[in-house]
Amino acid sequence: ACNDDELSEFLESGIYRFKNSNAVFIDPVRLLNRSHTRFRVSPSVYYSRFFESESKSKSKSKSKSQELEVYSDSKKRKRKQKKPHNLNERERVAEQRHQKVKPELLKAHEALLGSTDLLSTMKKLRSSFQSSTTEPGVGQSFVELGRVWQAPMYEIILNYQQSCVIDQCSEQRVLPLFNSLVANETNDDVEAEVLNRKFILPRGGCFYMISLVDMWKSELGQIHNLIPAESDCGFNLIVIDPPWENGSAHQKSMYPTLLNRYFLSLPIKQLTHTDGALVALWITNREKLHNFVEKELFPTWGVKYAATFYWLKVKADGSLISELDLFHHRPYECLLLGYCSREVSNLENQSAPRPVKDNQIVISIPGDYSRKPPVGDLLLEHAPGPKPSRCIELFAREMTAGWISWGNEPLHFQESKYFLAD
Ligand code: SAM
Hints:
With 422 residues, this protein is of the alpha/beta class. Helices cover 30% and strands 19% of the residues.
């Protein structure tokens, strides 16, 4: 049975903490809505996969994400049919890593399956608000827009509410779309326009969208020149979800990827606040990548490893999205946490945040392909330095209130089609 208080708290906050467990269940839609004042994220658009959706039977044509699911289902079947083979050295290490965390993941999953009230609430998450009437529109992606020669000329128009409180603010502001910091300094959602498409910018949210035209112009496409890393305004929380190469043709068609060596040059130390930063890095389950991060990337960045969080992916009925032991298709991903300090000597004695426990498990129903759950609020209590923490997300596809989002498409999920119609 499940605790009433926990459930009502979940409905408020989007976070359900299981008793005597290191696991939480989160509803990304509720967490994302914390960033917004006037607009609400559309649950039916967010949860376009992993719900035995009404829309599947309603609409005849399959959406892209539904096709994707079918695609991965058929792949899964193929994989399952494969005969077991002898593991090579790297696969053995990966298997050991998996076996080590497996009991924790199973415990977390059992906690979820034991919370019957939560389970019945989960089934309703997709339809918990009035349903959206906006049809997902089709427009060029920002990755494409940022590649054309006209990119430097594109603009974004911020349309402020009449009641806007900024000094002498006019009702509109026009800014370059690419390679400039665009901020909503108000305490309210701001509607913005790009090429006749509408976007919602959360209160206090900023984005810096790089155009890949400039990336290729810059020395060997060095990304670090394109991150506004100023030494006097560092960050206490740095969340990074890099476009790792993983060889899947499907992934390649979704967004461009970069070779590991590019990430070595990310200026993590320059981005770090004088009181230090918590660095949270999403990685895939490839053993080679674990190795690279542990042995090369974190040491190069000056990040000291602290803990691993696991994102366990479930369907609306609470079942795992794939078998736990499926070698190449685990139903979880890892978020590696570490601390970075401006000076090496400070790492030990910097103002200690709440110590971060290892093996915490965050359970949620996934959204779009490769979209990560919003874990910022769960990480904030572990960030060093003064509050409110200064936060940045690198390779972001969405904005968060009070954060800077950097990447080549940080406006992606801010388009009005991802929100409920007014
Ligand atoms: N965290 C995001 C989310 O939850 O939706 C997903 C990030 S995805 C793994 C990586 C992102 O990096 C993609 O948006 C991709 O287009 C972007 N990217 C690829 N190459 C880039 C580059 N050279 N500079 C900046 N961003 C790049």
